[in-house]
Amino acid sequence: MSMNIRVKVNGEDRFILNGVTVGTLLESLGLEADSIAIAVNCTCIPRAQWQEHALREQDDIEVLSPMAGG
Asked: Which tens digit of pLDDT belongs to each residue from 6-30?
């Protein structure tokens, strides 16, 4: 039986299935992997690990995108 867990994505509470990976979460949010970086609990997750890094209850996920400027 699958159960939902609560995580925060950019400060917003979300409920996801237990065991969802960073990669699956990004796909469900419709985000393009080429232009973002991901931090879970203030730790940057390398892109090569997105499909295997399972999210846990109360994880704090930050989706970061580059900004132009000087």
From this structure: 999 999 999 999 999 999 999 999 9
Look at residues 20, 16, 47, 6 and name the one whose alpha carbon lies nearest to residue 63: 47
Which H/E stretch holds residue 52? none
- Residues with Cβ < 8 Å from 12, sequence gap 6 or more? none
Residues 55 and 70: their CA atoms lie apart, in Å, by 34
Q: How do 43-44 and 37-40 pair as beta strands? A: antiparallel
| CATH architecture assignment, domain 4-64 | Roll (3.10)
